[in-house]
TrEMBL record:
Naturally occurring in which organism (per UniProt): Deinococcus koreensis
Name of protein: Ribosomal protein uS12 methylthiotransferase RimO
UniProt GO BP: tRNA modification
A Gene Ontology term for the protein's cellular component: ribosome
Gene coding for it: rimO
NCBIfam families from the UniProt entry: 30S ribosomal protein S12 methylthiotransferase RimO, MiaB/RimO family radical SAM methylthiotransferase
CDD domains listed in its UniProt record: Radical_SAM
Length: 505
């Protein structure tokens, strides 16, 4: 773990001396780390500053995955430094402090990822506060307890792991109605294009009980959709030998299928991300067919040519098409999302044709693709036969043309049906009565990466709120999105008592 401390630069406006600005960059996994730091900041009495002008210091949670992300992180650090002079850097890029110090020698401290305690140590050193003040205590509601009433006076419940002190965040950076739940950190694979295992270490799984209590608390507080994330969700629990832990008086194994069963029983939407096609995923797909969790799998396949998959050293590669066909037999409504890399070193036109054929055969619902680019310190940089940039780009556009056509065809099949849609935002135009136009997502769309549903509220205008799950008649579609009208607004009734609604759901 990196941990660099320097003298802070002597600039910045003084306020109460305990206002911390926060910049969160990177993937949902980094977002969860940001939530943990923000939770602890507020627990210790710090205020979160809405702008540089209001901040006494700034924490930048960085991304170090690909070159553009590194650049974005470095320029955010520069901006924060210029504005306040006191900057603590954390996150993936923090694992490579020399890169940061080279450009920004005046940062106050650098820590790696998952380093809540180290970050807090640096915050306390930079902005010491009178512990007696303790004004920013954030209510952390225990399951079934109303937030703000009978609060614990000790630290929030914590779970010790090799990565340090990990606890369920109570500050969320997502809207109230959905949340990311991280079930493990790190990765045991060695994909040749990826440096995440070097940055974040080997996999460390959380106990199933801790994950389930976090999910329970979120749903009790109004969260309707849980996104389950980690680097390799199918491998959850392998590192702790699927050890059992307590949840509501029983024991639960740290195994994906056991976890999915328990999560499904809570009655919220449960969405699985970063699932590799291992045999035991069939059981997860069965739970989808039974309506226990969402019929949605985010499976990063990256390529279809066995030669390229071998060069990528991908986990779970091989017989991908058979696996997808089997999953669809088990759960015909399954929506599969995947990502691919085109132009990997050594990719010939034949390999690429194999990928295109796979795309035609697999008819994946949601597809993202990137051209390959070197990542500092990745093994793939040394591979022979790099693909010229113009060939990569030409392949990407041929790939996306097919992916878009398939997406449009699959979405057109939804026209005329009635689908469940979770509402993310209002989309009213100037002359509309409030709540006339809405934007939401179906069970087959994850926030931020998949399509959206543009809706007229019709007779329910003004009655539908953000976070409601409505029934909508689909009337039109294009390459990525659906269009329709709300026809019903059923009551939301999860199997977890709702805070503020005691005595019923
Ligand atoms: S599975 Fe591969 S790509 Fe994903 S985090 Fe692990 S090493 Fe990186």
């Amino acid at each position: 773990m990196t941990d660099v401390v320097t003298e802070p630069a002597a600039v910045g406006t003084q306020h109460s001396g305990r206002r911390v600005g926060f910049i969160s960059l990177g993937c949902p996994k980094a977002l969860v780390d940001s939530e943990r730091i923000l939770t602890q900041l507020r627990f210790e009495g710090y205020e979160v500053a809405p702008s540089y002008e209001d901040a006494d210091a700034v924490i930048v949670n960085t991304c170090g995955f690909i070159t553009p992300a590194v650049e974005e992180s470095l320029s955010a650090i520069g901006e924060a430094l210029e504005a306040t002079g006191k900057v603590i850097v954390t996150g993936c890029l923090g694992e490579r402090p020399e890169k940061i110090m080279e450009r920004h020698p005046k940062v106050a401290a650098i820590t790696g990822s998952e380093a809540v305690d180290d970050v807090m140590g640096h915050v306390r050193a930079l902005l010491p506060i009178d512990q007696g003040a303790f004004t920013g205590l954030l209510p952390v509601a225990a399951p079934g307890m109303r937030a703000g009433a009978g609060q614990p006076t000790s630290q929030p419940e914590r779970e010790l792991t090799k990565h340090g002190d990990v606890f369920a965040p109570s500050v969320k950076l997502t809207p109230r109605h959905y949340a990311y739940v991280k079930i493990a950190e790190g990765c045991n694979h060695t994909c040749s294009f990826c440096i995440i295992p070097k940055l974040r270490g080997l996999q460390v799984s959380r106990d199933a009980g801790a994950v389930l209590y976090e999910a329970y608390r979120l749903i009790a507080g109004g969260t309707k959709e849980l996104m389950i994330i980690s680097q390799d969700t199918s491998a959850y629990g392998v590192d702790v030998r699927y050890r059992e832990s307590e949840f509501q008086g029983g024991q639960v194994r740290a195994h994906l299928s056991d976890l999915a069963v328990k999560l499904g029983e809570m009655g919220a939407w449960v969405r699985m991300h970063y699932v590799y096609p291992y045999p035991h995923v069939d059981r997860i797909v069965e739970l989808m067919a039974q309506g226990k969790i969402l019929p949605y799998l985010d499976v990063p396949l990256q390529h279809a040519s066995p030669k390229i998959l071998k060069a990528m050293r991908r986990p779970g590669a091989g017989k991908q098409l058979d696996t997808i066909r089997r999953w669809r037999e088990i759960c015909p409504e399954l929506v599969i999302r995947s990502t691919f890399i085109v132009g990997f070193p050594g990719e010939t036109e034949d390999d690429f044709q194999e990928l295109l054929q796979f795309l035609e055969d697999a008819r994946l619902d949601r597809v993202g693709a990137f051209t390959y680019s070197d990542v500092d310190e990745a093994d793939a940089n040394k591979l022979a036969d790099p693909v010229p940039q113009e060939v990569k780009e030409e392949r990407l556009s041929r790939f996306m043309e097919i992916a878009q056509r398939i997406s449009a065809e699959k979405l057109a099949e939804k026209v005329g049906t009635v689908m469940d849609v979770i509402i993310d935002e209002f989309n009213d135009e100037e002359d509309d009565a409030p709540g006339t136009r809405l934007i939401g997502r179906t069970k087959g769309d994850a926030p931020g990466i998949d399509g959206q549903v543009y809706l007229f509220a019709g007779e329910l205008a003004g009655q539908v709120k953000i976070g409601d799950i409505v029934k909508a008649r689909i009337e039109d579609s294009d390459e990525y999105d659906l269009y329709g009208e709300v026809v019903e607004k059923p009551e939301w009734s999860p199997n977890v008592p709702q805070l503020g609604h005691f005595g019923g759901h």
